[in-house]
Amino acid sequence: MKKSLLFSVFLFSFSALAAQEISVVEARSAEAVPFAQPFALQFVLSHTPGYEVTLDQDSLSKDFEITQISSAENSPGTVSYDLTAQPFILGKSTFTVTFNLVQDGKTFASAEKELFIDISHAKTFDDMNLREIRSPHIPSGWLTWLLAALLLAAIVYVLYYWYTRLQERPRRIGQLEDSRPGDVIALSKIDALLDSGLWENQQYKLFYITLSDILREYLWRQFHIDASADTSAELLRRVKNMPQMAPLMYQLREFLSSGDLVKFAKAVPSEQIRDKDVKILREIIVETAPKELSPAGQEGTK
Fold it and tell me: What is the pLDDT of residue 9?
């Protein structure tokens, strides 16, 4: 009985892992295109439902410049990607692209596709029978000076415009800078978010994006940690060795995981989950904020 139970668990785990699949079922592109002329490519992918398909832009061929990318979900298990590319190499070339199967920021499977494309010379007018029939035109002296003066005036205007913008920018930044302590600013922003109406309007994703941004801004103000572009895993690695954050790592991981489910997996949180996540963020801010020290000798006196 025990062996059969272990075998069933192993079989179930193997089936769950095997279910995470992605494949390119169709790829469309022209076989030959002119040099530096945009052309369209389309990839249709089949994948395990419940996962997100992303394009790995680092895998794209360096011989092509991608000018446009769009995607559309055809069904819960199929998605199509439309790309517009410009070739900057002559001869036979290979267009390579990789798609990833992602959930909660983690890649479970990948699919790579190669297309062979022949890049030909751009069409030019090299007919020897063509000739210029217009007579040479040399502007008179006053027109040349007028054009030079207009060009000089335009250059002066552009330089003056950027100079005034640069002078105004520090003043605007100084006006918007909040001089309050970082923990006070963060706690006030949490209160403002709860009063914003985003939750009542069922804008849960935007609510959790703002909640996560409050944490990242607090880390910058309080510890000068720029986590604005970090994933949840990168943020955890960045703060795990901080003495202030060490006792709160479990709560921080729980807060980030809950937010990722809403932002990336489109989970709909309950009000209890929202209150729990807000409480965790408040606890992190309060516990890591600088503690005020009482004056020496004041403790124990009346």
Answer: 44
Percent of the chain topping pLDDT 70: 80
Q: What is the pLDDT of residues 177-206, one digit of tens each?
A: 678 888 899 999 999 999 989 899 999 899
Best CA proximity match to 92, nearest among 65, 122, 126, 120 = 120
Q: Is the pLDDT of residue 302 over 50?
A: no
Average pLDDT, the chain: 80
**Cβ within 8 Å of residue 79, ≥6 positions away:** 44, 45, 47, 53, 71, 72, 73
The token pair that represents 64 in the structure block: 């092509």
Predicted TM-score (pTM) of the model is 0.41
Instruction: State how far the Cα of 139 lies from the Cα of 161, in Å rounded to an integer.
Output: 31
Q: Positive or negative, the Cα torsion across 27, 29, 31, 35?
A: negative
Rounded to the nearest angstrom, the gap between the alpha carbon of residue 261 and the centroid of all alpha carbons in its chain is 16
| Cβ count near 301 (within 10 Å) | 6
If we measure between CA atoms, which residue out of 207, 205, 188, 187 comes closest to residue 197?
207
Calpha distance 25→301 (Å, rounded): 79
**pLDDT per position as a tens digit, 107-135:** 888 888 888 888 887 665 555 665 656 66
